[in-house]
């Protein structure tokens, strides 16, 4: 990969530093040869690969049109990336940088901490002179993390590396489609452990980056490399728009979900555990158990999680306000709170799901501990991908947002799903309470 041949913003900056920056500046434009593949050929001289040659493309337009169709994607960056790949001989294939050195400072994190005395360092896990190296760069060892396992003397990134381009990187739904794409790419290629990750985009740091870092062994932005970098095993992850999670909105994907445990006991080729496994991967990344099976009557009571919509500054082109999908959300929450306090049949804990300002680990914890998840149609409900098998979903859908995103996710995970359709954006609290009461009765509450 030649970062200088990829035209886009550096990426990884603090949001406050890039307010107003256009999206086009953050999406990659690839010059020919932005990516190169070394070709081992006994007759290099005859095919233009030796010396200063190497103008052969990996694929032609016929291949691109057959396997990487643009479809409805206006700027298909993965198609452009593949189109930029040049075949070169060994003499032209040189690396000036590997993914990990004995100690390296992650620049985008330094930008976040530039006013602090402590600075994070990343070191190769095989580094034997850690303390002296830390002193040389003036870093705080308490903030250090392992960053890959590449030999400091090598020119190759030996571990598998996923190359990912994100579009709507600050939106939970679209980010989950990217996570799912990266997960499926890892599964399809049979990786035995979590790969490294390189963002081939120029987006700034966003809160959801916390989960990217938890899911993968290491993370780096393509433009943060100072020179050509060579990967022994690079995997191009499909765009999030090309995953089942997104395509299912317009295409009929006849698929029902189940847990891997259930399918192991009772095989059924009409069901899949793929989305269930994906949710387990997210939970495992934050240290939560993946074999947790909730009993019908939790000792501490049933958690009813109400996923809320909050204002927050998402990206450089965002005004900080989110569009309301439920005009009386607070009224509904207050009514539920009052009803729960008077409910004597069993213990119910109403959880106020103010996710926008919660660490991702706490969001995932709230999802996995919930017996029932309620919310208006909105990106926050995408978290149900991490729900445990017996969780029940109740979606409140306004007339303006009647889309099947979360009904499909529930179906593909094998979760029980209910909905309340509104004439406008106002929900009658009594109707929501009646529906919730019916659901809880099904849980012996």
UniProtKB/TrEMBL annotation:
<keyword id="KW-0808">Transferase</keyword>
<dbReference type="InterPro" id="IPR049625">
    <property type="entry name" value="Glyco_transf_61_cat"/>
</dbReference>
<feature type="domain" description="Glycosyltransferase 61 catalytic">
    <location>
        <begin position="291"/>
        <end position="394"/>
    </location>
</feature>
<protein>
    <recommendedName>
        <fullName>Glycosyltransferase 61 catalytic domain-containing protein</fullName>
    </recommendedName>
</protein>
<keyword id="KW-0328">Glycosyltransferase</keyword>
<dbReference type="Pfam" id="PF04577">
    <property type="entry name" value="Glyco_transf_61"/>
</dbReference>
<dbReference type="GO" id="GO:0000139">
    <property type="term" value="C:Golgi membrane"/>
</dbReference>
<keyword id="KW-0325">Glycoprotein</keyword>
<dbReference type="InterPro" id="IPR007657">
    <property type="entry name" value="Glycosyltransferase_61"/>
</dbReference>
<dbReference type="GO" id="GO:0016763">
    <property type="term" value="F:pentosyltransferase activity"/>
</dbReference>
């Amino acid at each position: 990969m030649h970062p200088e041949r990829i035209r886009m913003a550096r990426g990884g900056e603090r949001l406050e530093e890039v307010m107003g920056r256009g999206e086009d500046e953050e999406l990659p434009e690839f010059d020919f040869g932005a990516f190169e593949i070394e070709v081992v050929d006994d007759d290099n001289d005859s095919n233009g690969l030796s010396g200063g040659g190497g103008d052969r493309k990996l694929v032609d337009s016929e291949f691109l049109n057959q396997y990487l169709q643009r479809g409805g994607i206006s700027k298909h960056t993965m198609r452009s990336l593949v189109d930029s790949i040049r075949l070169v001989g060994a003499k032209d294939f040189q690396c000036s940088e590997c993914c990990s050195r004995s100690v390296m400072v992650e620049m985008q994190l330094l930008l976040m901490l530039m006013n602090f005395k402590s600075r994070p360092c990343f070191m190769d896990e095989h580094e034997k002179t850690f303390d002296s190296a830390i002193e040389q760069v003036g870093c705080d060892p308490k903030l250090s993390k392992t960053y890959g396992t590449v030999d400091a003397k090598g020119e190759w990134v030996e571990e598998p590396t996923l190359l990912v381009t994100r579009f709507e990187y600050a939106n939970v739904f679209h980010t989950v489609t990217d996570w799912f794409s990266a997960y499926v790419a890892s599964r399809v290629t049979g990786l035995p452990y979590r790969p490294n990750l390189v963002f081939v985009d120029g987006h700034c740091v966003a809160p959801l980056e916390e989960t990217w870092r938890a899911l993968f062994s290491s993370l780096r932005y393509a433009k943060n490399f100072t020179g050509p970098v060579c990967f022994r095993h690079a995997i191009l992850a499909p765009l999030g728009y090309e995953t089942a999670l997104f395509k299912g909105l317009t295409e009929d994907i006849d698929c029902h979900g189940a847990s891997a445990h259930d399918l192991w006991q009772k095989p059924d080729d009409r069901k899949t555990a793929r989305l269930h496994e994906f949710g387990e991967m997210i939970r495992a990344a934050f240290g939560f158990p993946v074999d947790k099976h909730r009993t019908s009557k939790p000792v501490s009571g049933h958690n009813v999680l109400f996923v809320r919509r909050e204002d927050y500054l998402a990206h450089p082109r965002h005004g900080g306000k989110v569009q309301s999908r439920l005009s009386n959300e607070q009224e509904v929450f207050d009514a539920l709170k009052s009803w729960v306090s008077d409910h004597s049949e069993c213990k119910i804990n109403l959880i106020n799901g103010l996710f926008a300002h919660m660490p991702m680990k706490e969001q995932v914890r709230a999802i996995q501990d919930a017996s029932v998840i309620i919310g208006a149609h909105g990106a926050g409900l995408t978290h149900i991908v991490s729900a445990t098998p017996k969780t029940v979903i109740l979606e409140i859908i306004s007339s303006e947002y009647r889309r099947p995103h979360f009904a499909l996710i529930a179906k593909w995970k094998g979760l029980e799903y209910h909905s309340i359709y509104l004439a406008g954006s106002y929900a009658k609290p009594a109707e929501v309470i009646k529906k919730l009461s019916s659901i809880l009765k099904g849980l012996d509450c």
